[in-house]
Amino acid sequence: MFSLFQEVITAVMDFIFDDDEDLDIVPQVFPIPPPPLEGEDLSIPPMNGVQYLQRAIEEKNKCEGVITVKMDLPPQPNLQVIHVPTKKECSRELLPSKDYQQSVTADFSKLRLKMESLQKKMEDDITIRKIRKALPDKEDDDEWLKICSLQEGPDVVRECAVGPSAKLCLSMSQVKIWHVLSYFPDWITEGSLSLADSCRWIYCLLACLELPMEPDVYFTLRQISRALMEHRAGLESQDTDSLPHINLIICIIGRYFRQEDLADPYV
Q1: In degrees to the nearest 10, what's the CA dihedral of 140, 146, 149, 153?
Q2: Residue 207 binned pLDDT confidence (cut-offs 50, 70, 90)
């Protein structure tokens, strides 16, 4: 079969180039010189172009097909070492079940569709516009902490959207959502906000995130998940009130947003 295939290819090529007997597909840059005379000293400088090409070919034939070089580098005492944090493990009894994780992921997916529909319907809503104008700058973490902790904040925000409501989250631009999410790893670690409130805010903000996301946003989500895992590792019992909130966010980040290396195993 292979020989027949070769014959067909040869016949086709002969037909294509039948009228081009002198056709040179890849023309030579230089003519190939005759080999040097026996006993000719190729170490002396060439006297003409032919001798130059003879010496070039001779040098080329001495070279190996693959050349490797052994690097004898001095020791580097000031090398920068990057430590990649590992996943914080916890007691098996604190982990959510497979059915729970699949149910959470499905419900969260439905919520995101609803939020997307609401976003289109409420784009020109008067309340949304009022909240949007009253929201602090995306980099003002102190003001955002006040809003998230329900301590203070703009009057219109407290009157129209107490807590992580749909109206408040839909009033935020994507850039503001990214920035506010980036505050939560430190807030969780430092205890600036209760764990339950932190998870409620994170859940609602994640529901409003548009895909695809920037790499920095994925980094933020991973930092949030690691901070929650760190807190969960210190829990002693599954009866702790904060555990369901922690598992909820870890599940969504790991399963829905495809950070599988940080997802809890199916148990």
Answers
A1: -120
A2: very high
